[in-house]
Amino acid sequence: MEQATERYEKLSVLGQGSFGDVYRLHRPRDGNTFAGKFLRETWDPAAKARFQDEASRQMRAAGPGVVPIIGSNFDSEQFIVMPLMLGGSLRKKFQQEPSSGRACCCAVDLVADIAEALAQVHARGIVHHDVKPENILFDGDSRPALSDFGCAVTCFQANDGCGLPPCCTLEYAAPEHKTGTGQKGDIYALGVILYESVMGRPLPVGWWAKRIRWPSQTRACTNFRMIDPMIQRLAAQEPQLRPTAQEAVAELRKIHTRICARNKS
To answer: Which end of the chain is more exposed for a tag (fewer CB within 10 A), N or C?
Structure first.
């Protein structure tokens, strides 16, 4: 990652996070556009350190399925430069699509891709801690990538609690988040997203303790029964009952293959 010493112009706001704002950037030198995340509280030394830690963890997690940092400036404005993800966020896709009846095949394939990115992140000792549709972005070829490592922490253990981030999102937070979650907290969020991808809404918080009406074949996609057990496994109340990210990839790919084979028959 090179220091972003050249000039960038802010064109428009792309999004706002807990600690910073994301802008569409224009580079006058060549006319290229990027996304830039700027720290708001540049006067606060603690905020600066937190922002630089975020960038460090995102760089450490770099690879397929993670939005890369391609430049930074920690001397004055405090910002990082990333590719402009032209496909927008998963949240935006949810808002544009019907609230139910999404293809199970596509939903499983998407969550398998996210799980694969998480497997890479976890292998490098990083727990994202805020996996949600807003933080899953798509490039121009509709490939998903994890973004926003502002809540991320370092943790090599799948089940061990690694502290409570102040900005986790309740709808996607594992039940153990109040005492600190490890890698299995990210897995819980995958289960919520898989359910939401089909049903158009997240799992109810504490769904296992409530008498919620579980989807039927008529209310969800045709192959819902094939992914139902996987949703409940990913979003299990107890962390030890959830698979690791790598295990989730293998299981989701198998389900995807079965659904595709059934659709062709």
So the answer is: C
DSSP state of 56: H
pLDDT, one tens digit per residue, over 111-154 is 999 999 999 999 999 999 999 999 999 999 999 999 999 889 88
Full DSSP string of 22-45:
EEEEE-TTT--EEEEEEES-TT-H
11 three-class SS: strand
Helices 183-199, 245-264: axis angle to 10 degrees equals: 20
Question: Of 30, 44, 113, 130, which is the active-site residue?
Answer: 130
Q: Name which CATH class applies to 88-264.
A: mainly alpha
Taking CA atoms, 125 is separated from 18, 152, 154, 189, in Å, by: 23, 10, 5, 18
Distance in angstroms (rounded) separating the CA atoms of residues 119 and 249: 8
Q: Has this prediction a pTM greater than 0.70?
A: yes
Q: Does the annotation count 109 as an active-site position?
A: no
Helix (H), strand (E) at residue 3: strand 2-3
Domain ranges of the chain: 2-82, 88-264
Which two structure tokens, joined as six digits, stand for 60?
Answer: 């450490």
